[in-house]
Amino acid sequence: MKQTFLIALTTVLIWSCNSDKSKTTNPNNNDKLTVDTTEYSLKSIDDLHERLTLKDYDKSLTEFINSSPNMVDSTRKVVYLLPFGNMKPEVEKLIQEEVEYLKVFLQLEVRVLDRIPYDSIKKMTSIQTRMVSSSDFDYYSKMKGGTPTLTEQIQATSFIDAVLKNNKPKDAIAVLGITEHDIYNPKYNFLFGISELKDGVGLVSTFRLIDYGKETKNNIRKVVSKQIVNMFSIPNVKDFKCLLNFHNSIDELYKGQFDLSPRALEKLKYAIGFDYSKRFDDLAKFWTKENDKTEAKYYEECSLRTKKASH
């Protein structure tokens, strides 16, 4: 059964306030944990990942652990997708279809909430909107075959503050809003997605990702999975072979990867606690079913190497 975000005029009815922020919260920031990271090491698959950058911008795993990241615990262990705004049935269908992939990718339960209509959003005075520039609207509307209900951009931060931050279900480790409207914030005129690294909330816009052609599903998959990983306190990196690479344009997104680098995946394992071999096996099966031999072969090799390394 779906759960629903309830909107009443200018207020959001709060489901639950989550007081258990993180099972690794450290009351004294001067106290650094000493952690044996051996069980998280993915050195065995390092040579499968060709890092296309000259500098290492990542935190080490130990630094990540000591940053008190957002983590799964005994209560918060479900990822929710929240569609909102005006949305074509094709997009809602794509969101539902991505649940299977996300469950395998994250090794967590993933559920879709009921969509919040745009009329309800407009009644909330704290959520800022503005018109999409005429040139952008004309271009993307023509690409999509007409989008008369998507003329307005939504200010991402105002939506996150008004709807997501304090309104997560009790069992939510992360809630990702997904809209077909264009989104922006004070720094950028448009965004593919944005996430709060500590609060476990974020947004994705499909406005500039969708032509309803074959690339649409891949674009949504990359951006949605990337933003959810960010919500486990794992920031973007400068690594063109990693899902978390920051994309400045739609062309960079097209060329971007579905896979996490070994260093990013080590952090995600710490935050979620999955078994590497099971995740690799599940992803190999998923990509085989999708007829993507390259991705399937990659995960099969990862599985073989990690199993060998563990013996």
Overview of the molecule:
This protein has 311 residues and is an alpha/beta fold. It has a domain of 204 residues: Collagenase (Catalytic Domain) (3-Layer(aba) Sandwich), CATH 3.40.390.10. 36% of the residues lie in helices and 13% in strands. A five-stranded mixed beta sheet has the order 4-3-7-10-9, sandwiched between helices. A three-stranded mixed beta sheet has the order 5-6-8. About 8% of the residues have low confidence.
Give the % helix.
25-40%
The number of helices is 10
Order of helices and strands: EEHEHEHEHEHEEEEHHHHH
Average pLDDT score: 87
Ends apart, CA distance between termini: 42 Å
Taken from the alpha-carbon principal axes, the silhouette is globular
- CATH names the topology of the domain at 71-274 as Collagenase (Catalytic Domain)
Strand content: 5-15%
The largest sheet is: 5 strands, mixed
CATH architecture name of the domain at 71-274: 3-Layer(aba) Sandwich
**By helix and strand content, what is the structural category?**
alpha/beta
Give the gist of this structure.
GO terms for molecular function: metal ion binding; metallopeptidase activity. The protein is α/β, with parallel strands linked by helices and 311 residues long.
SSE topology:
Elements: E1 7-8, E2 11-12, H1 61-65, E3 78-84, H2 89-106, E4 109-112, H3 118-122, E5 129-131, H4 134-144, E6 152-155, H5 156-164, E7 172-179, E8 183-184, E9 193-196, E10 201-205, H6 215-230, H7 250-255, H8 262-272, H9 276-289, H10 293-309
Parallel strand pairs: 3-4, 3-7, 6-8, 7-10
Antiparallel strand pairs: 1-2, 5-6, 9-10
Helix pairs in contact: 2-6, 2-9, 9-10
